[in-house]
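so i finally got all the pieces together for this one. its six components total, 1932 residues if u count the protein bits. some of the lines might not be protein, just check the labels. i wanna see the whole assembly predicted at once instead of chain by chain like last time, that was a mess tbh
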Amino acid sequence: MNSNFFQPVDAAAVPRFAGLSTFMRLPAVASAEGLDIALVGIPWDGGTTNRAGARHGPREIRNQSSLMRRAHHVSGTEPFSIANVADVGDLSVNPINLLDGLKRIEDGIAAIVAAGAIPLAAGGDHLTTLPVLRSVARNVPVGMVHFDAHSDTNDRYFGDNPYTHGTPFRRAIEEGLLDPKRVVQIGIRGSIYEPNEHDWAVAQGIRIIYMEEFVRRGAASVMEEARGIVGSGPTYVTFDIDCIDPSMAPGTGTPELGGFTTREAQEMVRLLDTVLIVGADVVEVAPPFDLGGMTALAGATMMFELLCVIAGSVAAGRARQA
Amino acid sequence: MNSNFFQPVDAAAVPRFAGLSTFMRLPAVASAEGLDIALVGIPWDGGTTNRAGARHGPREIRNQSSLMRRAHHVSGTEPFSIANVADVGDLSVNPINLLDGLKRIEDGIAAIVAAGAIPLAAGGDHLTTLPVLRSVARNVPVGMVHFDAHSDTNDRYFGDNPYTHGTPFRRAIEEGLLDPKRVVQIGIRGSIYEPNEHDWAVAQGIRIIYMEEFVRRGAASVMEEARGIVGSGPTYVTFDIDCIDPSMAPGTGTPELGGFTTREAQEMVRLLDTVLIVGADVVEVAPPFDLGGMTALAGATMMFELLCVIAGSVAAGRARQA
Amino acid sequence: MNSNFFQPVDAAAVPRFAGLSTFMRLPAVASAEGLDIALVGIPWDGGTTNRAGARHGPREIRNQSSLMRRAHHVSGTEPFSIANVADVGDLSVNPINLLDGLKRIEDGIAAIVAAGAIPLAAGGDHLTTLPVLRSVARNVPVGMVHFDAHSDTNDRYFGDNPYTHGTPFRRAIEEGLLDPKRVVQIGIRGSIYEPNEHDWAVAQGIRIIYMEEFVRRGAASVMEEARGIVGSGPTYVTFDIDCIDPSMAPGTGTPELGGFTTREAQEMVRLLDTVLIVGADVVEVAPPFDLGGMTALAGATMMFELLCVIAGSVAAGRARQA
Amino acid sequence: MNSNFFQPVDAAAVPRFAGLSTFMRLPAVASAEGLDIALVGIPWDGGTTNRAGARHGPREIRNQSSLMRRAHHVSGTEPFSIANVADVGDLSVNPINLLDGLKRIEDGIAAIVAAGAIPLAAGGDHLTTLPVLRSVARNVPVGMVHFDAHSDTNDRYFGDNPYTHGTPFRRAIEEGLLDPKRVVQIGIRGSIYEPNEHDWAVAQGIRIIYMEEFVRRGAASVMEEARGIVGSGPTYVTFDIDCIDPSMAPGTGTPELGGFTTREAQEMVRLLDTVLIVGADVVEVAPPFDLGGMTALAGATMMFELLCVIAGSVAAGRARQA
Amino acid sequence: MNSNFFQPVDAAAVPRFAGLSTFMRLPAVASAEGLDIALVGIPWDGGTTNRAGARHGPREIRNQSSLMRRAHHVSGTEPFSIANVADVGDLSVNPINLLDGLKRIEDGIAAIVAAGAIPLAAGGDHLTTLPVLRSVARNVPVGMVHFDAHSDTNDRYFGDNPYTHGTPFRRAIEEGLLDPKRVVQIGIRGSIYEPNEHDWAVAQGIRIIYMEEFVRRGAASVMEEARGIVGSGPTYVTFDIDCIDPSMAPGTGTPELGGFTTREAQEMVRLLDTVLIVGADVVEVAPPFDLGGMTALAGATMMFELLCVIAGSVAAGRARQA
Amino acid sequence: MNSNFFQPVDAAAVPRFAGLSTFMRLPAVASAEGLDIALVGIPWDGGTTNRAGARHGPREIRNQSSLMRRAHHVSGTEPFSIANVADVGDLSVNPINLLDGLKRIEDGIAAIVAAGAIPLAAGGDHLTTLPVLRSVARNVPVGMVHFDAHSDTNDRYFGDNPYTHGTPFRRAIEEGLLDPKRVVQIGIRGSIYEPNEHDWAVAQGIRIIYMEEFVRRGAASVMEEARGIVGSGPTYVTFDIDCIDPSMAPGTGTPELGGFTTREAQEMVRLLDTVLIVGADVVEVAPPFDLGGMTALAGATMMFELLCVIAGSVAAGRARQA
C-alpha cells in the first residue's frame, strides 16, 4: 500500500452510521489534484422527462456506500492501496436552467480531468453524461460500454428540444465525443415508441445487445464481445441503474421489467478489467422513488465494482510507466 | 396503420405524468362498440379471504401503464396499428354484496363480448375471473392458460361458502365454462393445506406444472406443452400476479416465495402468440400492499405483453377473413 | 339544481375506487366552453429549486378528490347545483424547458379565461402561478390572498436566473399583474436568508401576516383584515400546500415546521366567501414526498373548499345579473 | 390490588418487543368467564364501501398496545388493580359473507355478555358495532356516545343494500337497539352527499355536534352536554378512529380533514368517567393504509383511555354492591 | 397423524389475519416438554454493529408465518403430523447488557434441549447463535451448515470487544462448540475488510463456498458437498437472511448485493433432508428496515422449509427407535 | 458579521440537495477550537430498551438541516453572524459496549468543553445526555430545562441494570451533575408504570409540568416558571423529540399520544433566550421509524431554534466582556 493514499474509515473502529457521509467513507477533498480517481457527485436531473429525483442520487449513494469495505472478495483488488481515491464533493449545478446546468457540469469535470484524475461520477440523470463526455472526450472521441434499458439516442422532445435524458448519446455522436463504432449498449429492452426507433443508432455503428440476447448468451460471451468492440482505446463506462430489474432498483425514473439481476451486472462490470477506462458513471438513481435505499445501495455497489476495475487499470498503467 | 384506430398519447409530446390516467394512455370510451380489444377494469375483491385491496388494482395499473409505449421491442408488434383498442372504463361492482358483485361483472363482460370485442381485464381478485368466464364461455367451454402460485380449485371456505378467490376454477368447471382437459396451470407452489389438495383438479384433467418443474424445463419447453394442451380452440388466459415472485410483485394478497421472475413471465406470455385468445386478465394486484407501484407496473407490463399477442391474433384473424 | 350542470359520480352507486380518476369525480371535458369553473391540472415543477415532484400533483389530487361529496357540511353549499363545473384535464407542459413551460401554461389558462370560466388549478410548483396570472390578470392587475410559508418574492437564484418557485410574485408585481397593495400573505414563517428578506415585498405594499401573528389573532380576525385588503375587486387566491404544517402536508418540497392545521386552513378559506375570486390554485403538492396520500387529500379538500366559495360567488353574480 | 386479577407483562422486566402480542400485554384467555372487562378483537371489514383493511386492525392494535403501562398519569387509575381484564382473542368472522359475518360477531359478543363481562372491542369496520349492539342491547335499548367524522346513519348503498359501515346506526335505531334520544355524535364533519343528509338522524332525536361546534365550545362543555344526554342509563361508547385528524390517524378508510387532535380525544374520553358504560369499541383502524403504526397506536391508546374509565365504573359498581 | 400433536389453525376456517399471532399459527405453550421441535423467538440484537432491529424479528416472522399451510408441496411432508411442534414463545433477553443477554439466551435454549426438543429459533442477530450453540453443543462439538453473506469469523470490534454479530463462529470454534472441519459456509460475498480476512476460518478447516462458486455449480452440487462435510453427526443449521439478495430480503442490517434468490435458498434447504439437525435458526430479519413484510415472509418460509426437513428427521429417528 | 465566523452554504447558490451533508450546511471542522458553539453528533443508542435507531439520528438530522437558512424570522437573530459555529462531526461511540460507549461520549464532550465551545448535540438516545452532563457539569451541578414525554428518572431495568434511556437523570442527580431544584421537566405524559413513579424525582426537587398543565397554562406561563426555576446559573437544555406529538415526530422509540405541536415547542424554546445555556441536545430521533424525514426535520429545526438562543447568549456574554 502506498502510505500516502487516502484510506476509508474502518467500520470495525467507527461504525458505519457514524461520521460525515462521503463516497466509500473516504476523505472529502477540495480538488482532484493528486488523485488517480475522483469520486464525484452530479446532483442534477434537468433532462428528466418523467419522474425527476436523480438530483438526490449522490447524497443517498454516499450514505449507502458506507457499506463498502476495502477489498474485492473475488478479484482481491484493494483499490485504495493501488490508487489514490477521494471524494471531491458535488459539482456545481443549476436545477432550473438546462443549458447553464450542462455548462457547469462540463466545467466541473474538466477540472478533474485537468488534474489528471479519472472521474467516477454518481448522477444525476443520464443527460449528465453528455457534459461529462464533453470534458472527458474533449480531444479525442472515446468508446463506450453502456449498460441501460434504453438506448438514449432519441432526437427531440416536447417540440424541438434537443437535450433530455433520452437523447445524450445522439448528441454525443453528433458532437464527435463518441466513436459510435466503439460503442456497445447492453440490456436494452422495454416497449418502444416505434419499431425502427433504434435504426439511427445502429446506422451509426452502435452495437445494441438487447436483454433477450444477453439472456441467451450470458455475461461472459456478451462481455467478450463488448471488450472487442471498445478495444484498447480510451473508453467511457456508463451504468444507468435502470438496466437493473425494477425489483432490485425501483428508485429510478423509467423502470422497465425484465432487467439484469445485480449478480449479472456485477459479473459484467468485473469483466471490464482489461478496458482502458477514462471515466465512468452510475446514473438515474432517484431516491424519492427508492425503497429502503435499495437502489442507492445498488448504485454504491456498482460504483465500488467500477472503482476496482479502474483502480486495477490505474495500477497497471503505473506499472507500465515504472 | 388503420387511421381509424385509437392511438395512445405520445410521451415525447405529453409527459407521462400528464393527462387523465387510462390504460396505456388510450382514449376512454363509453362502450366496446367498434373495438377489437377492450381494456377494462374490474375493481372488486369480494372473494378475498386474507388481505383485500385488489379493488384498487385497476386505478394503479392504469397509472403505471403510462410507462408503456407503442411497439414491442422483441416481436416488433404495434398493437395499436393492427387492432382497435381503447379503455372502456371500470365495470359496475358491488363491494359489499358478493352475489350481486358477480352478477354485475358477468353483465359487464357480456356487453363487451356482445359488442364483438375481446376483453382484456385488470382485476380485481381471482374470483372476478369466474363471472368473466360466465360471459366469455357462455356458449362453449374454453381452454385456459393459467399462471398462478395457487390452483384456485378449492371447494368451500368459512363453513359452506362456495365463492372465494380460492375456488373460481372449481366452480367454472362445475358450471361447464372450462374444458378441464384444455386447462394448464403454471407456477403452482407454496405450502398447501393437504398433500392431496390438487387431486380433484388433476382428476378433472387439469395439467398442473409446479414451479419446480418449470425451473427444470424452462419457459420454451413448458409453453410448448401449454400450447399443445389448449390447442387451436378458444382459450382464456388468466395471469394472477402472485405467480411472480413476491420480491417483484409484493402488492398481492397471498404471496408465495420462489415465484417467476418477470423476465420468465414475459417470455412465457410472448409464447402465447399462436393461441386463439378470447379473453384475458391480470388479477390480484393489491395496491395497498404494493411497494412503489412495482406490482402495478408488473401488472401493466403483463397487460401490454398480453395485448401484443392478442392484437397479433386479431390481425391474423382479420387477414384470414380478408 | 340546473339540470344541465355536470354532476359528480355518486359514491353510494359507484364506489370511490372505481372509474376514471377526475377532479371530484366530475366528467372530463375537452374544453372550458360552457363552464363556470374549470378544474384544471398544471403538472409542472420546472421552477423547483430543491425537491421536485409537484409535476405529479394533479394526478394524485384527482385520486384523493374521489373522497369529496356533493355538499359542504358547514355552509350547505352545493357547488355542482349552482355552478357548472368540470375537469378540463391537464394543461400542456414542457418539463425540460422553463420558458416554453411558462408559455404553454399561460396559453392554456388564456383559453379557459377566454371561454368565460374561472380556473381552479392544481399545480405544479408555485412558479406555475406566474403564467396563470399572466392570463387571468392580462387586462387589469388583481389582488391576491396568498396562503404560504414563504413570501416567494425573492429575486435571483443560481446566478442570474429570474424564474423559480421562490420568485413568482416579485415577477408578477414587476409585470403589473398584481396590485401589491391588494396582496396579503398569510402564514409566512421559517428561517430566512436575511433579516431584511421581506423588505422589498413590504415596500411594494404587500401585507405579510406571519404565522405568529396568526396564532395570536386567530382566523376570524386575520381573514377580516384580508378581506379588507383585497376589497371588492378581482382577486386571485393561491394556496401553497406548505402553509399547512409538515405533519399534515409532508408531500411538498420546502416544508417548514409550525404551520397551519388543516382545520385553520379550512376556516380561513371559508371566510373568503365574500371575495370576488377570478382564479385560484392549490400548488406544491409533491406526491413523491407524500405519505399515504395525506398531502394530496389536503390539496383535494382545499380545492373543494375553494370550489364552494367560488361557486357561491358565481351564483351570486348570476343572481345579480338576473 | 386484587391479587387474582390478571396483570400485564412489565416492560422493565420483559422488553416491549418480546413475547406474544396481546392487548396491553395481558394474558390471552379462552373465555370471558371471571372477567370484568373483556378485550376482544373483531377482525372484519365486510361493510366497507371504499378502502378495506380494518380486518387487520386487531393485530396491529395489539402490537402497538405493548406501549401501554399500568396506570393513568392524570387520573391515577390502575385499571388492572381494580378490574379483572384479559385478552379473549378474536371473534369468529367470515370475510366473504356479510350476513354470516354479522351473525358470528353477534354470537361472539353474546358469549362475553353472558359471562358477565363488559366487551371493549377493537374493530373492524363500523358495521361491526351493529352486531355488537344486538348482543349488548339485547334486552334494553342503550344510549351511545359516538365519536366519528360521519353520522353513519345512511340508508342504502349500491342499490338496495342495507348493511354497510355507513348505515349501522340507522339499522340499530330501526331494530330498537339504540335509544336515539340518548345518542350523541361528536366530531361530524366533511363534505356530505346531500345538505339534508342528517335530517333522519336528527328527527330520531340524535344530537349531532359538528366539529365546528366542538372547536367553538371545547371538550369540557361538549362532554358535559354529552353526559347529560346519555344520563345514568346503560351506554355504549363507539370510537371511530376517523374522528381523529387524518394526520394523526391516516390508517383508516374514509379520512376527513380537520379532525380531533389526539389530545382532544383523550380529554373527551376521560370525561366519560361518570357514564355507565356497558360496552365500547375502537373501530376503523385500517393498517394497510397506516403510516408507521401511528393509527394503531392511537387506537391502542384510546382503548387504554376507555379501559381506565370503564374500570373505574366497574370498581364503583363493585363498591356500591359491597 | 398422531392425534396428540399440536395442529395449526386452519385458514379455511379462521382467516389468516384473525387470532393471536404465533409461529405457523400453532398453539403457544409454556414449555418445550413433550415437543419434538420447539419454535422459539430470540428477540435480541445486542451484537449488531450497524443497523439494529433484529430484536423485532420474532414478532414479524410470527405475523408472516400465518401464510404457511400444513404440507410441503414438493416433498409432501406434513410436519405437524409427524412431529409435535409448538410455539414456546420468546426467550428472556436483555437489550442493554450484552453479557447478560448472552447468558439468558443460553439458559433459555438449555431448557428446551433439556426437555428433549429441537430448537428452531427466529432471531435476533447472528450473535444469538453463539449462546444457542453453547446449549445445543454443550456436550459435543457440532457440525454446521451456514447460509450467509458473511463468514462472521472476525475477531475484535471497536477496540477489544470480542462479541458482535461479526464474530460468533470464531468464538464458537475457540470454545469448542463447533467442529470446524464439519462446518460449511455458503453464499459468502461482498466487499471485505482485508483480502486475507477469511484465512483464519479456512485454517481452522471451515469450507467457504463463495457466491460465485455457487452460481457456477448450482444448488445440487453444492449441497451434495455440504452434506458430505457435515456427514452423519449432529449438525446445526444457521440461516442468516442476508444470504438472500437484498431485493428479496431488504430488512436486514448488512445487505450485500448479488445474493441467493429465495428459490435457490429453498432448494438448498430441501436438500438438507438427510442431515441430523440438532438445532436451527433464521437470524438477522430486521423489521424496521423491511419493506412490506417481505423479509419476514422470507424468514417465515425458510423456517417452514427447515421445519419440514427437521420433522422428517425426527420421524425417521422415531421410526428407527420403534 | 464577524468575517472570520463560519458561514453556511447559501441555498440560492448551491441547491440544498448538493454538497456534503453537515449540520446547517456549515463547514466540517476537525476540532472545536475557536468555536463558540460546536454542533456535534452522538450516534449511539445503547441505552434503548424498546425500539433502537437513534444511532442513525445525526446523519438524518444533518440531511434535514439543509433546509435551515441564516436568520430567525421572529427574533431576527443571525446566529452565524454573532457566534462562530461549525460541525465538529460525530463523537466516537461503541454500539455494543454500554460502559465504553458512555466513556467515549464523556471524553468527546470534554474535548469540546475544554476548547471553550458550547456543545449542541444531536443524539442518540437519552442516555447519551448522562455522559454529556458528566463533562459539561464536571465542576459544578447545572440546572436543566427538560422537554420530554417521560421523566427518565427510573432506577433499574431487566434486573439490576442502572443505565438505560429511562434512567439518565436519576443517575445524574445521584452523581451530583444536576441540581434537582433547578430542574424542570415539561410535557410529561402517557401511561405510567406506577402511580407513584415520579415521587422520587419530585422528592429531589424536580418540578414536573405535565402536558395537561401545559395545555391549561400555555407556553408563556410555563416558560416564565421554567426560567425562574433555572435562574441565572448555568443550565443545560435537553429536548427529547418524543415531547412532540407522534403525528409530528413519529420517528422515535417510545411515542406517546397527546404531545406538543411543533409550534408550541418552537415557542417554548424561543422563550429560553434569557437562560445561560452551557450545553444542549436534541435526542431520540430514530430514523428507522421515521416517516419521510419528518422527525429529523423537527429535530433539525429545534436545533436551529436552540442555536439561535444560544448564539444570542454567546453574543450577550461577549458584549458584557467587551
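Chain B has a mean pLDDT of 97.
The two ends of chain B are 16 Å apart (CA to CA).
anyway lmk what u think
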